[in-house]
Every structure is written in C-alpha cells, then in structure tokens.
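Extended Data, record Carboxypeptidase-like regulatory domain-containing protein
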Amino acid sequence: MRFNLQSHFLLTILLGWLFSFQVTFAQEFFIKGQVIDAKTNDPIPYASVFIEGTTNGSLTDINGLFTIKVKDVSANNTIVAKFTGYELCKKKIAKGGKEKKIIIKLKESATELEEVVIKSRKWENPAWAILRNVQKYKNRNDVRDLKAYQYGSYTKTDIWVGNVNENFKKKKVVKDILDSYKTFEPIKDKNGKPIIPIFSSETLSDVYYIRNPDAKTEVIKKSRIQSLGPDDDEMVSQIVGSSFVDFNLYQNSFSFLNKQFISPITSEWRNYYDYTLQPKKVEVQGVQCHKIEFEPRREEDLAFKGAIFIADSTHNYALVKMDAILGKGANINFIDSVHIDQEYLPVAYDDSKLAWLPQQQNFIISIGKIADRWAKVKLKIKINNQDFIVNQPKSRIFYEQPTSLDPDALIETKDEAYWQQHRPNQLSNEESQVYAMIDSAEATPRVKLISSVGDMIGSGHKKFGPIELGPIPFLYAYNSVEKHRFQLGFQTNNEFSKKVAFSGFVGYGAKDKAWKYGATARFILNRDSWSILGVSYYNDLRRVSVNQANFNSRPLFIAALRWGDMRYPYMEKNASVWYERDLTRGLNIVGKFSHRIIDPLFPYKIDGSFENNMPEYDRLIGSEIYIKLTYGLGHRYVANRSHHRKLVAQDRRPRLTFDYTTGIPDLFGSNYSYHQIRVGIDQKVTLGKFGNTAYFLTGGYIPTKAPFPFLAMPFGNNVPILYNKFAFNLMDLGEFVGDKWASLQLMHRFEGNILNRIPLIKKLGWRTVGICNIMYGELSSQNENQAVQPQLLEGETYDPNRQAKALNSNTPYVEIGTGVENIFKVLRVYTIWRTTYHTPSSRNFGVYCAFGLSF
C-alpha cells in the first residue's frame, strides 16, 4: 500500500509538471542558438538576431549565444541574423520549434550592412561599465595628477624605404645607394623584402615633469644621427627625443602628425568608438586586465582601431596598454598606416598609491606610395623608459626650457662601447650596420647633391662648412623704387662658433643705383635661458609700417615686401643693440635701443602743408626704445645650427604678446617723439569632429602725435594670385592708415567633415575652410594734418586713390571667404570677398592659391 501511495504521489507530481509545461508551450516557446563566423567558426558577440517582420529579437552575448521568446507556436518563423561586416543570414524555423539549438553562420561581406536597432532597455555593452570606471578614476591614474616625475629615456628612430620595385631601382640615385650597400649584409623587412635605410638615430635623454603650471623638459644627454637628408644635427637631436612623440591618452584628444586624434578612452567614448569586451582577462606586466577591442564609429574620424588593456578594480581601472592602428578611412595625407603600441608601468609612491608611467612606446608610420615609380617610406620609433622617480620636483627654474642639449651631447657620438653600455636592448647585426650603410651612401656624389638641395630648401641657405650664403628668397626682387634688386647675404653656424653668430648682406638697385648693406652680431650668453645680446647696423630700403604685419619674421614673407608698388618707401640707417632672454618657461622678453635716420622717398612734411604746393621730404632722426613680452606655454621652440629658434610644435593654449615703443626726443639729435602699444593673442582651437580654428587677434594704440611712417597700416597683399594668411588679401599695402586699431584674422578648417560626406568627392580627400578677416580702426585729429603724398610711379601724375585713407571707426574692413585645401595633396584654392570700403579701384573679389604639404 505504501508503494502504491508513493507511486501515485510521484505520478501526480510528474503529470502536473507535464501538464503545466504543455499549457505554457501552447502559449510561447524559446528559440535558442549561436551565431558564428562561417569561415573560422568563432562566435560573433553582439550580433543582431530577430524574427523577420517583427521587432522581437536580442543581441548575442560574448559567446555568440542568443535566446528569443516566441508566442505563436503554430507559425512558420524566420529568424534573421546581422552583424556589421557580414552578410545578412535568414533561417526558417519549423512549426513547434523542435530544434534545441540553432547554429547560424555569417559570411564576411565587402559592403557595410545597415544598422539594426534592437530595442532592449535591459541590455548594454559590457565594455561600457569598464569605460565608465576608467572615467571615474581618470584623474587618479593620469600622470598629470602627480606633483612631479622623471625618468631616463632611450629613443631609436629609423627611416627606411620599403616595397622597392624595379622601376624605383632604375632611378640613378637609388642605383648609387644600392651599389654602395653591396658590401653589407642585405637588410629585409618582416616579409623578406629588401629595405633601404636612409636615417637612423639613437638618443639618450632625461625627461622631467612638474605640475601647476604643467611643464615638461627633456635634457638630451647623447645623440647619434646618421642621415641622407639635411645637415642640422643640433635641431634634429632635439626633435628625435622621446618627448616629441609622447602623448597622453587620458586627454580626450592628442596631437600626432600635427593632427588632433581622438583617444579611445575619451570622455565622449560612446560618440566616437564601438567597443567589444573580450570574455577572459589577460595579464600584462603582472596586472590582470580587461581587453577591450575598439574601432571608429565613423570611418572619416581621426580615430584608431585596436585594443586597450584596462586594469581590473584592484588597480583602479588604469590604462595598462594600447595597441592600435589608424582607421583606413581617416582623411590624412600620404600616410598609408600608423601603428601605435604603448605600455605603462605602475610605480609605487606615497606607500599606497600607484603612478602609471609610459615604459614602452612604439610607432610605425608608413608613407603611402605617391607614384608608380616610387616605393614606400617607413618611420619606426622605439622608446624605452626606465629609472622612474615620482614626486621629487626640482626647482621651477630647472624646467624653463622644453628641450636642452647637454654640452657633450654631440661629441664622440659614434663611440659604440658607450651605446652598448647604455642601450636597454642590444642591436641586431643588421641594425648595427645601418650607420655604416648610410655613411657609405652619403658619400656618393648624387646623394650629396640631393642632400645639399634639400638642406638649402629647408634652411633657405647654401651651406659651405661654417659659412652659409642666403637667404635664397632675398637674392632677387622687383619693385617700383629699385626696379631690379640683387642681394647676396651670409650667416655663420655652430661649426663657426657655439657662442657667436654673424650675418650680413649687400644689395644693389638697378634703378636707384644705390647700394644697400647691413651686418648683425649675436652673442649667446646662456643657452639654457636663451640669453642673447645682439648688435646690428643696416642702410636699406624700407616701406612704411610693415612692422604691423603678423608674418612672424618668416623669410618668404619678408622677402615679398621687397616686391611691387612701394607706395610709401624710405631709406633708413639703423643702429641697434638688443637683449633677449626667457624670464621663465614660456615667457620671453626682448629689449632694444635703436638710433634711426629715415629719409622718405615720398613727399612728406611732418607739420602742416607743402609750401607753395611744392613737395618736401622731411628727414626723421630718432632714438627709440622697444620692449616686447611673449607668453606661450603651449609653443615649443628648438634651436637650429645658426643659433635661431624655430617654432616646431604648439598645443591648444594661446600665445600672448605685448610690445611698447617710445621715441625719445632730443637724444642723439632725435627730432620726434611718440608712444605705441600693441597687444596680440593667437591660438589653435580644436573643436573635435567639427575641425579646428586658428585665429590671431591684435590691437594697438598710438596715444600721441607720431610721424606718418610710424602710424599703423594694415598688412595688405600686393602679390597677385598667391594667398598670404598673414595679410588682408584684397587690401593693397598702404591703402589704410590709423593710430588706433583692432583686427581679427580667423581660419576654420573643417578637416573634411563636409566633403567627406559626398560619395564621389570623398575619395579626393579635399578639405573645406572658412575665412574671416576683420579690421577696425581710426585716425585721430592730431595725426591727420601731416602733408603726405605717395611716391609717383614713372610717368604718373598724382592719383588720390593711391593715398592712404583713414578707416571709419563705425565701419570695419571685412573680408570673408571659403576654400578647398588638399587638392592633389599640395594645392589650396581660396575665394575671398571684400564686403566693405568698395571703390572704383578696389579689389572686391579674388581667387588665390597657396601650396603646402600637410598631413
């Protein structure tokens, strides 16, 4: 009896369970399965799976598994699976859904699939939670949170030509190089193809950082350079150090190749990247990490594809490693590929805290084939850092210069025993012979010639040992005063002296038959603080008020001022002495005293009108003091071989300038006095996916009566067709004059964000720009009564249209324009409209061109 009761009880439970199951099944059932790659059988996570004709579906999990609830058991259901980069796949599900597990295989597709949105409030990408924690602990893990840090750095830089084809080998210079390499062991890339090394360097340096305000400096201890290119080891040594390719991924964007790239851990990560979290943790440097693969959401963004390794919660979700390549759709010139590999090392400090500092940084950049007869050029940079010290800052004065050379940095650089002792890893036999190979190729006549031409283009001078002739743009000019002007100049370099630099010129005008000449001596008192004493004298032709132009002393633009209609020319004898010094990091001061004798070549009387309407030419004799302050923490300069500094990098921080000039009466025969104040700010602003803006805002005021040659004249452009970004291009030089002014010059580059969306144009890689130049000004009554007429051209009578006019304080001068850059990679075309101050002789519209290489 007991058995029967027990059997009945069990039977009742079983029948009840079966009945319950049948009732439920009659209402709904579950489709379960897995989505895999048809070729590799690997699971495809986060694929879209849904019932055709409905919104009923889900996403696969990290193992490609899915489950979909279906209510109508009697229907023939078709299940659809989709994933970006794969072909759509449909699979019929029989009535009743007998299959226990459905396997759906997706095939790769060359075309991008349409996005399918599965509406599910419960699902989110598992990588997002980790990335939110990265943002949460961002300040703690960012090295900029430290008071200070320092480390030793070794940088190995190599440039070589790869993918050498037969056409390229037939070039004479390439044949000479290959012939010079025959005595060496052939060097091949990872694919077994021969490569031609053209540059190799090793640099040992110490890198230092201090916070508030942020300052980073690199001291180059030793630098070894062998190159087939231009000869300026001093400048190159400062550029090939590790700090020029050291960027911080904790910033939302970072500068690389003079472009702003979007970090994969930007605070706006969901707007720019798609992420895939790998199911298992991996170990990097003994740290358990989450591996997250990422790729750009939009192929045209300057973003990367690859993997980041994020430490687990034990190490506060710090970035441990990134291995990535540049997205193929990025609108960037000449670059075929960019591979970046960075690895960070935790350094303990303050007992319980960790600082994550860059231990290894590797970059491989491939410059794409430009033409069929050209091969590809690759740049490889390997950086190894060690001996980290945290929160032991030095005195603030130590960080004044971003880059400095040890006095012995370029002495005995080929001592192989020294490098073997200080390299973190020994070179292979192939790597060791690269220096000798380049040295051998450099000795061939054709390479010498090409190297010399390249150096001449880059420096503007022809080098003959310690003496250099130039600048080349000044050799010839054509203008209304001299007609044909010929000039020969020279300068010394660091082979002549490490402490003294000389330069000079002599010129002659065919029309005025006058000799012009000048000389300068500069004494480098202290290179660390850029303390320089200079003296100069010149007797030369000048034109009125070009000192108002923002051309930053670029030789090409200064040379352009010697061309065309001078309008208000004068001869000047100028003796000056000046002192320059960096007061602190980013803050530079220049103080100058000048004695000037100015002979106007245009009719000019400083007081009143011309007597009996007969032109006069008043001589001006003056003694002036000039002081200029420049502050720009984000602007980085390096010294070149001629002991000048060149701007080689700048970040998004602004640069401020202030200068003051005063003329001192009765000093050394001075017959005038005046005061002038000028201020300026320039900056490059990155606007993320909207591009970047560069602007220059300046203003000035002359509160006293001043001689006409010292009044402000906006910088116009007298050169047809060629665009000058420092000028008002539809304004003539000398067209307007004032003693109070403010101007804005702005150019916004959309970086392809407009044209990239047009299918056919997108392939051309063109980039749109917007231009806006505005000038406000006025001329006070105290400076209106000077008698001035422009110089008459040959055979010309007085033309009032050539006379400088005062701007109306209520009406600004405005130029607006647009343009397309990156045509054939080098050509830029701008269309400019002048919207105010129209006259019968004014240029109200123009099309201008410019040339330049940029990434």
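Summary. Residues 1-27, 111-121, 548-552 have pLDDT under 50 and may be disordered.
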